[in-house]
Amino acid sequence: MTGDHLASLLAALGPAAADRYEQLRWRLVRLFRWERCVDADTLADEALDRLARRLAENEPIGRIESYLFGIARLLLREEAARNIRQRTKLAELGRDPTRLSIPASEELAERLNRCLATLEPDQRRLLLAYYEDKQRERLAVELSLTMNALRNRELRLRERLEKCVMSGQNHSLEKEQ
After folding, report:
1. pTM of this prediction?
2. What is the biggest distance separating any 2 CA atoms in the chain, rounded to whole angstroms?
3. Which whole-number Å values give the CA distances from 103 to 92, 106, 157, 164, in the listed order?
4. What stretch(es) of the chain map to CATH 1.10.10?
5. What CATH architecture does domain 105-173 belong to?
6. Could you list the pLDDT tens digit for every one of the 177 residues in the chain?
């Protein structure tokens, strides 16, 4: 935001402009946090910058707050579109076999079996049951765990197993707890 833009914004905010500016900024930050935006502060600043530019261009604005929160809605849409593009790129990366260095399927299966064999029997049964049965609620009840606890346990085991398989070394599965 340039000095002229800031001056236009402060003039439009009227008396006690600094306080009103801070109140509007704080409301924007809360809105963006409520919408689970990663960088709410930056988005709030961007909304205020855009408003200041419009005011400096002498664009007729009726109610400043309404206009500002309209800008915030547009920023939320832009953020959502950016997130979708990013997820699409990540998904394409996962589908492009030339970008990943995954070993041939036979070697990968052999590594997986070796790594599974290094797990403790209870851990191996949990991991296999989690993916074979697909009746995870029943599995959680049998183990006296909540669904979140079951998912967390499975996630830790899967990460250790993946690390072992991708490194090609079975010693990485040694008990890390």
Report:
1. 0.49
2. 73
3. 19, 8, 21, 13
4. 105-173
5. Orthogonal Bundle (1.10)
6. 778 888 888 888 888 888 999 999 999 999 999 988 888 899 999 999 999 999 888 888 889 899 999 999 999 999 888 888 888 877 776 665 554 455 557 777 788 888 888 888 888 888 888 877 667 888 888 888 888 888 888 888 888 888 888 776 544 444 443
